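Hi D.,

Good news: the full-assembly prediction came through. Inputs first.
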Amino acid sequence: MQSFSFRRPLRDYLSLLIPALLLGSIIWVMESPVGSLPPLGLFLDVWNGAYHTARLAEEPKKFEANIPGLSAPVQVLRDERGVPHIFAQNDRDAALTLGYLTAKDRLFQMDFQTRYASGRLSEVLGESMIENDKYLRRTGMMLGAERTWEAMQKNSSSIKDILEAYSQGVNAWIDGLSPQDVPFEFRLLGYKPEAWKPINTVLVNQVMAMDLCFPTKDVGMTQLADVIGWEAVQKLYPNHSPMPEPQSPEPKGVARQNIARQNSEIGHSSLASVQQSRADAPHEAMQAFLTSVKSASELYAEAMEGKGSNNWVATGTKTQSGKPLLAGDPHLGLSLPAIWYEAHISTPTQNVYGVTIPGAPAIIIGFNDYLAWSPTNTGADVLDFYTVTFEDTKQQRYKYMGEWKPVREEIRPIRVKGKPEVADTMRFTHWGPVITQNKKTLSIRWTAHEASTIMEAIGGFNHAKNWSEFQAAQRKWDVPAQNIVYADREGNIALRSCGYYPIRKQGHGKYIQNGETDEGEWIGRIPFDSIPASVNPSRAWLESANQEPVPPDYPYYLGYAWTNPWRAMRISERLQAGQHLVPKDFQALQTEVESMQFRFIRDMMRTCGAAETITEPVKKQAVERLLAWNGMTSMDSKETLLFKLFWDNFASGTWDEIPDSIAGLPPQDVLITLARSEPESIWFDDKRTPEHETASDICKRSLKMAADTLIAKYGANPDGWTWGKHHSLVIRHLLRTGAVKPLWRGPFPFPGFNSTVLPASGWQATHSASWRMVADFKDGGKPTVQGVFPGGPSGNPFSRFYDSQVQTWLEGRLYQLYVPTSVQDFDRAKLSQELVFTPKR
Amino acid sequence: MKLFLFFIIVGVVISCVMYIFFGWVTALMTFPFALAIQRPHRGWLAGSIITLISWAILLAANFVIAPEPSSHAVSTIAGFIGQPTFVPPVASLFLAALVGALAGMLGSGLSRFFVERHPSS
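Then the structure:
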């Protein structure tokens, strides 16, 4: 027998080496990320890649699990829309179960949002996020979260137990996950979820606070003054809307004795101080800051129109049933997985249904057996910037009231994916975190820096049985400040701008404050009994839509960057005229799209003479058609496109001296008021021409330009002007980046316009109603409620429940919300999944 | 030929099981079978067929277990790689055939190396 030998022809070695090398290369390519792309194996692996995530979307009819921390068995029944109905024997078990379910459905969203709030995106997204992390840390979201959690522990509040239970539930789910079981986004980004901590729940609220009340124009206002002057800034960006539409007809904000009037426009002595602070914070520092804000805000805190909300309520004297009707639709940057998580929680002490934010242990907007509530953003000024003068380059002491005060330092390294840690030293003044750009420094004070009791407020809402209990819970609501509309089965309605509103020594917080003095100090907060509120008003209805909530004679300074009053005006108009209202009326109003801008500018458009001077028949016809329009920006409208072109020209033609990038253009109500009351104002004059233009001239020119663009770009056939062909809405993935566009939905043809009741700003809207709800107390007992949101319960992009409600939402329809009283009461025909959780011994 | 078919069938079964429990890299497990077939010149074919069939079976199983989510997965993957919807499954199967063929070639090579008696020895 011949023996084995390594002495062989080269061909034999090559026949081993070549396939081995090729195989090795393929394995390497399949398993390694390529640049920002995930490993190819995630896409091509037929079993453990994306297809594994797809199989997880097909849930079993019955699911059982032993969960540590439960004190008794819990049953969860999902209805045909995938909404979980939690039946627990106590509130703690309910919170734990909600944590488990939310993690099961939305783990990536929970993880990512808390990383955002704590400035830890670099850990998972790499070094491109380092500057964002630095900025996010300096917003002080983490500072406030730590203070809140510390206060909860010190007070051993019951809400602390709820947060801990919720965490146990989340972690029970995480602990049972294999590497392939984690949500798709973790696999795309190549990281693993980490254990959930109770403070993460607080951070989730901080993200919402960031989104709703951090975008501020204080820095921009100060910088803009350099460009157009202080007087102009005060005129064009006034504290009070020139077209007031206060939400509270009988405001309770009664001036107290010894409280200085806070609400006037800024006086000259105050202005001098502001000018000093302007000198201390030069252009480049502020520009750098604005750039940081823009970059970090792309994820959540985008300062754009379309973010706001509507809510309204009517008493029985306005409704067909003789009982209250309530509606609410918070407007936010839409995302998938959806912002909200719909759930029903039933325990011996509560039976509450509505939507919560993944990460929060209670229902945030919703109803129970006795009452319903829905918020809108108040938009008050709850954040200030202060100039900081350091003693020297060591930045260890800063000047305040003629003395040098010590700076507190905190070193928290930033961990970076695939790179060494980056040292990050944060500094704090007595106001809050310090932001240094180009050797110039600002310090921030924000209501979200302080220990919050909002969780107690939300818990109180869930358990409240009447107005008195609900109002007691409202006292705990602080950040973000919200206008909360209320109705109950006893026939009461109410609207209160709940929240923490600081009172400044100098009376306002509109510009960067002079940090060397105490003029910008916060000396208290508006007392609960003085915040804007109205209960059972004689007019029988209430509404809010982010307008200035109070009339100009309200005794306290609340803010200045109010949303245009158009939505509020239209809702008020409809409610004022409404009789025998039924839920369908409220549903229709939620999707109403009349442009109020058009209504107020129409007369000027008719009289400016544009139609007469246009000779080309097709353009003349288009303009005449617009002038006869009813203002409805529906998808089949042929006029909206021309109006949009006109409006953009009119605004940019008027505000040609004002750079949009600093603080945005002046509010639309200021523009319309100026055009109607001061048509000869210098702001309408085009400096490039020798003539002095008036509002009418700009209107005429804008209309002619719009007609030219319409025909040149969209053709002469009116079919080509159909609004739905040019105006759309897109629902982005929560990562926002176009790199994950396959996880987006849309663009969808979409009706509406800037500040219509159904909002849809720009050519492609990204912000709109994130949840719609209509609650009817017609039976005098439990409310009958309908709702919808543009998403679904699941965060799995391959699940039918990822975007299952989007089409219904697009069509403006609502689902009847199913509220069984017990497991036995649950209609089995509606059952899509049964989950049984038992305590793990 | 019967032996060849037998090894193919056994190879497919084992390949599927290995894939499910240990991941796609275990597609390489096909090469021992190619080796065992004792037909060095057909190793690449056996490997290719075994891997292609086993991946195709698993791919199809996804659509049986979770039809709608699997369809969504395919269209999403296609979106990520910027290709028509049919491309991801075809690419996976092409990859299967390629990996299997290479593994089979490796098996054949090893077979020649260790089993064939070299005339010069």
